[in-house]
Amino acid sequence: MNAKTVGEWGCNSFTVVEGLGLFSQIRKIWQKRSGASVSVGMSLFLMALSISAITYGWPNQMWPLVINGAVLGLGFGVIALSLRKFKGYNRREEEFFFALLLSLLSMLLSHHLDRWYFVFSVGSVVALLLQPIEIWKRKSSGVVDVRLLWLFLASNTFWVIYAYAIQNWVLMALCPFYVAVLILTIVMWRIYRPRAVPEIFDIDTSCPAMTDDGQEYYCVDCDHPLVRTEGGRLFCATCNYQPSKQDVYLVRR
Predict the structure, then answer these.
(1) How far is Cα 200 from Cα 8, in angstroms, rounded to an integer?
(2) CA 38 vs CA 60, 110, 129, 250: distances in Å
(3) How is the chain split into domains, by residue range?
(4) How would residue 201 be classed by pLDDT, with cut points 50, 70 and 90?
């Protein structure tokens, strides 16, 4: 079995693995009806990277790359749309989305598809960093699905081994960074993962927590009303964590 065959087998196999991870993340977002702590910027960029993979792979008949781009592009596209529905985009994220569209259009009109794909590939290292930063800023893992992280880590570990086996300098340069960022993200997820609150038993989540003057507490991550535990602490039943003061805002009803 030569290196090309191994690469194609690995790409096809881990495309299925990554697709399962994306499906798990999408399901969790819709189950919780929240995009808490899932990075919009990362999702948008990886969707664009996947489209660039199709654009580069199709004319060069690199069908495993095209299939991988199609599966990941669809998955991250659905995640991006889900985040827009449940989390919303701020102005900077809207501008980033249109910048990515402009970049993809420029790639389509260019005669240097390989250079554009390389630029997107290098940029994806920075894009992946947005996820652990998002978790750290929110001090919560929110609805980030750790299974997606582990499956992507397994996939990229294969590509590190394969890169050194065939001595491909591009993969040798990029894949170890992907692995390092994914490990960092998993560490951040474990630090800020949801923890059960001992006092919560048969809590009525239909009765939101309110101040004495009739204002309701809301979670800034998911925009859902907070409830109070039996111990009197604020709790977000959607994100399944106790928010800090900067993660709460008041709404008068």
Answers:
(1) 50
(2) 34, 33, 12, 23
(3) 3-191, 197-253
(4) very low
